[in-house]
Amino acid sequence: MLLGHPAESLRLPWSVPLASFSLEIDALSAFFLVAIFGLSALAAAYGGGAWRAGPGRRGAAAWLAFNLLVASMALVVAARNGILFLFAWEMMTLASWFLVTLHHDRDEARRAGRIYLIAAHIGTAFLLVFFLGLAGVAPTLDFGLSGAPAASTPAAGAFLGPSALFLLAVVGFGTKAGFMPLHMWLPEAHPAAPAHVSAVMSGVMIKMGIYGLLRMLPYLGPPPAWWGWLLIAIGLVSGILGVLYALAQHELKRLLAYHSIENIGIIAGGMGLGLLGTAYGTPFLAALGFSGALLHVWNHAMFKGLLFLGAGSVIHATGTGEIEHLGGLLRRMPWTGAAFLTGALAISGLPPLNGFVSEFLIYLGSFQAAAAAPGSMALAGMALIAGLALIGGLAAACFVKAFGIAFLGEPRSARASEARESGVLLRAPMAILAALCLAIGLMAPWLLPLLQPALPYGAAFPAPALAAGFGTATTILTRVTAVAGLFLLLVLAAVVLRRALLARRGVRRSGTWDCGYALPTPRMQYTASSFAQPILEVFAPLLGTRVSSLKPMGLFPDKASHATETPDSFRERVVAPIAAEVARRVAPFRRIQEGRVQVYVLYIALTLVAVLVYQFLVNP
Amino acid sequence: MNPEGLGGPVLAILFAPLFLGLIQRAKAFFAGRTGPPLLQLYYDLGKLLRKSAVFSRTTTWVFGLGPVAGVAAVLAALTLLPQGGLPALFAFPGDFVLLLYLLGTARFLTMAAALDTGSSFEGMGASREAAFSALAEPVLLLCLAAAARVSGRTSLSGIVGGLTEADWQRGAPVLVLVGAAVLAVLLAENARIPVDDPSTHLELTMIHEAMVLDHGGPDLAMILWGAALKLWVMGALLVGLLLPVRTGILALDGGAFLLAMAVLAIVIGIVESTIARLRMNRVPQFLVGAGAFAVVAIALILR
């Protein structure tokens, strides 16, 4: 499909009202399918290694849920009917919920499952209304089948305008994607699930929200500019706060979960830029924004998948993901360490790896807007530039912390010093993903043209103008690749030179020169909390970090401690009060839930009678 | 790719250590000393390259990767930089993003190398470097965005290599503000006073020097050389922004560029001699102040 093959479709009747079993695979679907199947296959291989000992009695059930998750994601991107889409969507939510609560003997897993289930269903509720709103437009809930009439502009009779539908879609799909402040479930669910499930959930499942937006928005007609603004604003908030919260976390998987929010923010920013380009009729900007967002979907699937697998490997070997208890793992787990470093560089958006390329496309679009576009669009470009730069710098800081404290230096605990490298089934998927990160980073110019058929709103522009935009972007990426390749060659040359110079004079080994201090211990090393402190102090008003500290006292201090914890302030300050209030208000309704079957039968009978009476009185 | 663009990197490689020598001389003059020879850094580099090295038993290959990638990244970044009348080897829209991110790769690996030693001094240096560079990066990119708006172009060749007198007449206030902000970022990113002090090694307030405490021999040579080149890159950015001499005659443009670089070195020397280093917790304010300059510049140009 990505190579220009026409779309394949299948349509079967289905007895559910408004529904039909309509499937189609076009370029956009194919694009997401590649990511889904690619990452899931690698994650499954990894899971095979990690679960070799077996997750206990639930082994078969766990694999069933994993396979269901993958199949339902494939169905989501292939479905071309609202009911079928929601059916697949729900299956995806439930399958992943089973995986999140796999270790349901643990409190935090049960809690995470509960939060996830509630959040996902609030999102689905919005989507239900969204699809019903679309149904006001089209006679069936089929969409986008080639041949079938696509609902291009909402009819006058539709009970919801396109902007209302847009907001519903943003909330509904955004909950799955993890837009702030709808992200609550992400940092709970990812750490609770097994590593390879987190990889799939973070790498591709949350992208289903992105897919939904990209798929559905064109049906709402030509976008007004404020849609783009809204997505850029959401993107910047998610991106900056996501990375700041990540910086404040000291548990590997939780940290990675917040980084998913950050990367979703980058993707949303790209989509916002694309929408602005579409609204103002600038094909080059639309091409750059949307293709940057799309490419980042792939890239994030790769490096985030890689990092979650790496974190899983660490937890497998040491029994903990707390960065403060790790250290020196690169020596003990060379494969995991090298793979994690690659992923860390990629997620920080640094050349020559893949994260840079997609961010570069969004930067390029932003600068194009900032330099030449009319006022308001230029402002959007400037905002994106500043936001992306801040996100990039903070992400680099966060991953220097995560990699440096966990893998470098001396082990901070006995478990870390006894760590062993994971088996080949765990290493191979990581190695493949790391190689892919580098390959995409260097092959971007050849990849970019594949995105053109998948571009949303592609039909809104004359084909030659769009093709010209892609042509220019491809030429630019060729040069980027040339410089990135030159960089790698220079690194190689410098390595050879260094070898030659050191071989002549020899190298001695000694202890770290700790400014003359002769008896350093691992506990004297810099910690993750200390590393992040200068940044967190600057952004303290946004974060609400709790510090519990016991300062050394007296002439002979015996005990001192310092601990920081950064809970999600959205959860604590916004959602928790609302949830408490809602729970209080709906408490009286609990009396309806009697628990006796007879009472429920009575309810059914009463409802039937009420409907009958209504029918006779109002509609004789 | 412009073959004549090879001249730029050669120029930088030849003159970057001299630039530092000039700063040292200016500082020495203000302190009433004679100061080290102008070519001191060349001697240092030559000596360090011939030395052996002592590695900590804690370190891994990441420790060696830091200096190596640092030099390679700055050299690659040089191919994107137009200097004086010399065009860049590679010029394309958005090339400065690649340039800054290449420096970002170098910084990432330098910080990782620092943490590799397990020394808390170097961890401290890396932590501060991470914090301050995360604040400096957006300022620099916003400055470039404002300059891009003035020139209407989105590549370094357009922004720093192609700003004309006409652009200056239209956007002088913007460009002055941008120049001030870039100078502030230059001082912060290159470990100069008032953010960092390049001449001490063991102060607890150190950033860059604290990160490289354990490096010696060829590694230290690469770090010093890389730092000199990075200072040159940022200096050339600033000079390109502020010096609209475009006669088209290579000798004239190049001469003006080199002269301006010399003036910049002396200005940095004066700044370092007359201003005290800021307290660590004041540095974010310094950078946010530079950011405010950039935002005002943008407000002026978008008005």
Describe the fold and architecture:
The complex is a heterodimer of chains A (620) and B (303). Chain A has 22 helices and five strands. Chain A is mostly helical and 620 residues long. Chain A is globular. Chain B is an all-alpha fold and 303 residues long. Helices cover 70% and strands 1% of the residues of chain B. Chain B has eleven helices and one strand, in the order ααβααααααααα. Chain B is globular. The two termini of chain B are 37 Å apart. The chains are: A mainly alpha (620), B mainly alpha (303). Chains A and B meet through helix 13, helix 14, helix 15, helix 18 and strand 3 of A and strand 1, helix 3, helix 4, helix 5 and helix 9 of B.
Oligomer: heterodimer
Morphology call of chain B: globular
Q: How large is the share of residues in beta strands of chain A?
A: under 5%
Rg on CA atoms of chain A, Å: 26 Å
Structural class based on helices, strands and sheet pairing of chain A: mainly alpha
Helix share, percent of chain A: 55-70%
* Biggest beta sheet attributes of chain A: 2 strands, antiparallel
Determine the N-to-C terminus distance of chain A: 55 Å
Task: Identify the strand order in the major beta sheet of chain A.
Answer: 1-2
Uncertain parts of chain B = none
Share of residues in helices of chain B: 55-70%
How many structural domains are formed by the residues of chain A? 3
Mean pLDDT of chain B: 87
What's the order of the H and E elements of chain B?
Answer: HHEHHHHHHHHH
Give a concise summary.
The complex is a heterodimer of chains A (about 625) and B (about 300). Chain A is mostly helical. Chain A contains 22 helices and five strands.
List the helices and strands and how they pair.
The complex is a heterodimer of chains A (620) and B (303).
Chain A: E1 8-13, E2 20-25, H1 27-50, H2 59-78, H3 82-100, H4 107-135, H5 162-177, H6 186-192, H7 195-205, H8 207-216, H9 225-248, H10 252-279, H11 283-318, H12 329-332, H13 334-347, H14 354-372, H15 375-407, H16 414-417, H17 424-451, H18 463-505, E3 507-510, H19 528-538, H20 540-543, E4 546-550, E5 561-565, H21 569-586, H22 597-618
Antiparallel strand pairs in A: 1-2, 4-5
Helix pairs in contact in A: 1-2, 1-7, 1-11, 1-17, 2-3, 3-4, 4-5, 4-6, 5-8, 6-7, 6-10, 7-11, 9-10, 9-15, 10-11, 10-14, 10-15, 11-13, 11-14, 11-17, 11-18, 13-15, 13-17, 14-15, 14-17, 15-19, 17-18
Chain B: H1 7-31, H2 40-49, E1 53-56, H3 61-78, H4 95-116, H5 120-151, H6 156-159, H7 165-189, H8 208-211, H9 217-242, H10 250-274, H11 283-302
